[in-house]
Design a protein that fits this description.
By secondary structure, the chain is mostly helical. It is about 60% helix and about 10% strand. Helix 2 runs antiparallel to helix 3, helix 4 runs antiparallel to helix 6 and helix 8 crosses helix 10.
Length: about 350
């Protein structure tokens, strides 16, 4: 099975977030011990959860690179999705639930904030560090998202690390604003319940972020098809030769962001010999691997095309029909250098190369 060279570019955002969150967590805990602020404690726990999340993403990325085994013949690429799903669970249980609990506790048992200047300074420093982390994530995402909007990118990308960091950092910056508001109002009004309200708002925010992340990672774990652009290129490569009359139906699934499994039924001529069909399928597979380097596993089944038996409701048939339509002016996943989900076609081998 062809193995695509690993591109670790998307992990820069994870490493930046790990460094930022570790420093922020330590600083926030010190500020909580000095001030006794519930919002600061909620933010400190949030940063600890985010630090653990980055570690999980790195572990998942490393484990996904293991070679295929007898028990896992398609490899371990989906470990990246599994660990990203665990991140969403951790963000909810450690971050959201604790923050809500602490907020409710401080609202029902308000306490005055000690040394209020300390948490406010810490929140300002944390905002700068979180902004640096988010800036890095945005820079790396811009290198691969192309013309897609941010919402579409988070929903459609097959690489789990960047959406995780983007959602985490965005929620963190909003959470810092909520914590600043909670602490500030508690100091101005001398009412500790505002501090608890800030913690409660942070918890609800983290719950929403965790739910969005969990839904996206669940979809990837179940198995998502290649993008419309990638499917179009696969069908075009299969039909770009005399060996195959047309593609009858096709299914694709991402085994990892940089690995796609292709299963298609292709129409051959009735008078072709077995040797001709076999040679034609091998040639068509080579064309696909050149056009779509992430098509690491390809299964082609020869058949005789019978239009009357086509089921228009079959997603595998609709995938081929969409691929025959003219490409829109801007595709959903444009080819860009460094995009592991949709790399540019490979150069064809030189004559005599194997």
């Amino acid at each position: 099975m062809t193995r695509v060279r690993i591109n670790w570019r998307e992990m820069r955002a994870v490493l930046a977030a790990l460094a930022a969150n570790l420093g922020i967590a330590i600083t926030k805990f010190v500020a909580f011990l000095v001030s006794g602020s519930a919002s600061m404690l909620a933010e400190a726990v949030h940063s600890v959860a985010d630090t653990g999340n980055e570690v999980l993403l790195l572990v998942g990325r490393g484990r996904a690179d293991r070679p295929a085994s007898d028990e896992h013949p398609f490899g371990f690429g989906r470990e990246r999705y599994f660990y990203a799903f665990i991140v969403s669970v951790m963000l909810f249980t450690v971050g959201a639930v604790f923050s809500v609990y602490e907020g409710v506790h401080k609202i029902t048992n308000p306490e005055e904030i000690r040394s209020p200047l300390v948490p406010l300074i810490v929140l300002a420093i944390s905002a700068v560090l979180e902004g640096f982390s988010l800036r890095t994530a945005i820079h790396e995402a811009n290198a691969v998202r192309g013309n897609r909007g941010w919402g579409t990118f988070i929903r459609r990308t097959k690489s789990p690390e960047l959406p995780v960091v983007l959602l985490e950092d965005t929620a963190a910056l909003i959470g810092l604003g909520l914590a600043f508001a909670g602490v500030g109002l508690a100091v101005l009004t001398h009412d500790g319940r505002w501090d608890g309200a800030g913690s409660l708002a942070i918890g609800l925010l983290l719950g929403v972020a965790a739910a969005i992340l969990a839904m996206e990672m669940k979809s990837l774990l179940i198995g998502e098809s290649a993008s419309t652009d990638v499917q179009r290129r696969i069908v075009a490569a299969l039909e770009d030769g005399p060996e195959i009359a047309q593609v009858i139906h096709m299914r694709t699934v991402h085994m990892a962001p940089d690995s796609v499994l292709v299963a298609a039924k292709v129409a051959v001529r009735e008078n072709d010999s077995a040797a001709q069909i076999t040679a034609g399928i091998d040639t068509a597979e080579r064309r696909v691997r050149i056009a779509v380097p992430i098509a690491t596993t390809i299964y082609l089944e020869p058949d005789i095309y019978r239009p009357a038996e086509a089921d228009e409701s079959d997603p595998a048939i609709r995938a081929v029909q969409r691929s025959h339509l003219p490409a829109p002016p801007t595709t959903g996943t444009p080819m860009k250098p460094g995009n592991p989900e949709n790399p540019a076609p490979s150069d064809p081998p030189a004559p005599g190369d194997s």
